Input
Amino acid sequence: MINRSQAAALLALGCVLGPMLGCGDGHPYRVTPVRGSIAYEDGSLIPAEGITLRFESQEPPVNPKEHPRPGLVEVDVSSGEFGAPTTYDYQDGVVRGRHKVLVQVTGAQPGAPASGQALIPKGYGSAASTPLEVSSGDSPFEFRIPKP
Output
């Protein structure tokens, strides 16, 4: 039979060794799944061949060598919907907290403007200029952007 101090020591050892042995994620930031949709302000779909959303965390670094990683997700262009982004592991979500959301489009569907960049207004591809900012706790997101 183990006493309380032995149980506490085993628990502490598990917390220290768990991430090293593959028990626990071992990542410096907690992530949470999010989902949502993106379309133009009038509700019409963005006529791109591909749309990638990049969630740039605004959380401060835990130390000078460890900064929050961005979460990336591909949008289903036939519906404008997206599921959980990938930050550390496939579809694990985004780092908890505030994010700037970047929109990257590739190609244009038939009948759309010739340049993929013309499908969205300038500024959505940079964290410094994107007007999209969200908190991970506000999911599901409904991003509506103006037509260029």
